[in-house]
Amino acid sequence: MQAIARANRVDEGKNNGLIVDYCGILKNLRKALATFATGSKITEEDVNPVKPADTDLLAELTEAIAETTKHTAELGFQITDLTEAKDGFDETVAINKAKEAISQNDKTRKQYELLTNNVSKKFKACVNISEAYRYKKMVNAFEIISKRLKDDKKKKDLSAYLFELQKVIDDTITIENETSVADEGKIYDISKIDFERLKEEFKKSETKNTTVQALKEIIEKRVEMMLKRNPSRKNLYERFQKIVDEYNEETDRQKIEMTFDELLALVNALDEEDKRAMREELNEETLSLFDLLVRDKPALSASEIKKLKSVSVELLANLKNRYLNIQNWRGSEFMKGKVESFIHDFLYADVTGLPPESFTADEVKEKTDEIFGYIYQQYPSAESFKRLS
Q: Which pLDDT score, from 0 to 100, does residue 45 have?
């Protein structure tokens, strides 16, 4: 009973349990249940706690495939275009067509992922049902499309992707020929990309949906990374989210082209933001502190801004030398108190602190709280600031 109960235990994403009975113990179990099960009425289910249910599992698989096929057909793609492809070229064309249809917006992609995952789960549940293998070619087709969609999400380097996109345009082929980004890890200069040409060529593209989705995925990763390093970049994330929300509301031809233009404009903004630390003569870490200090202070003079840059550099250097090199400093209430007190005293002191003519005592306390929160999040251990440096 324990063995059967464990295999049949309900779990999220689990379709069924498979029990292999090598010694015929199930026969004895049914006999024991028929003899000792209590209750006024013993049902067939009481004495048969396990049943193959091949018919039920096969019906569930058939239904899952039908639902997924219907979804792709409604989006403009017939799965038979892939399952009946004659050669590798036809397969590539069919896969790209499927990706373009499925990538109309985030909702259509998500729905396809859910449906395909369900098909895969139902097919695995039918592993010992021979009749299920007549669906294997169709299941494989759904899964390869899903894999190619996921491969697009693995692209990480925004500038490398844009250079690849420009190269493809130069070669007068579509971006969906399954080529990988060349020289991965190489540093690219975005300023050398002809954005206006990209916009014009995009209007002629037959893979608008796929291109926008791929670009959106890469930008999202970059924005999230930049926001994690510097919370003051929240406006960039909000700008990106607004583009995505408007794109998902309506996906006609004109809106897709407008979304592409807006994403390219955001790319330029992200590139400028990446260069801002150098322009301010700071690094990424000290820029984050500087941004926290100047936030809500638009009327600072040039000398005050210079002073705040100095405060940012010296404060972080002192924190690293005194406290952040202590392993697991966040696990000690005493150490957290020491760090917070040091930040406040440093910002309040006449020599090292904020310009008193522009920052009140309450504002010093407010900036202390903001900087401590940032330090607490970004530097959990002695190794963390080495990683960020």
A: 56
DSSP 52-70: --HHHHHHHHHHHHHHHHH
Please give the Cα distance from 182 to 187 (Å, whole number): 11
**Which has the higher per-residue pLDDT, 34 or 318?**
318
Closest CA to 212 of 187, 236, 181, 243: 243
Strands (DSSP E) contained in the chain are none
pLDDT tens digits for range 347-376:
999 889 999 999 999 999 999 999 999 999
Instruction: Measure the CA–CA gap between 71 and 108, rounded to whole angstroms.
Output: 9
pLDDT higher for 153 or 180? Answer: 153
Task: Give which of 177, 161, 163, 168 is closest to 220, Cα–Cα.
Answer: 161
If pLDDT is split at 50, 70 and 90, which confidence band does 327 have? Answer: confident
Q: How far is CA 42 from CA 2, 25, 49, 319, in A?
A: 21, 21, 12, 73
State pLDDT tens for residues 131-164.
Answer: 999 999 999 999 999 999 988 777 667 777 777 7
Q: What is the DSSP string of 300-354?
A: --HHHHHHHHHHHHHHHHHHIIIIITSTTGGG-HHHHHHHHHHHHHHHHSTTTS-
212 contacts 219 by C-beta, under 8 angstroms: no
Task: Say how far apart CA 245 and CA 243 lie, in whole Å.
Answer: 6
**Which residue has 């002192």 as its token pair?**
318
Q: Give the model's pLDDT for residue 156.
A: 63
Cα–Cα separations (whole angstroms), residue 81 to 63, 78, 136, 191, 367: 20, 6, 16, 41, 61
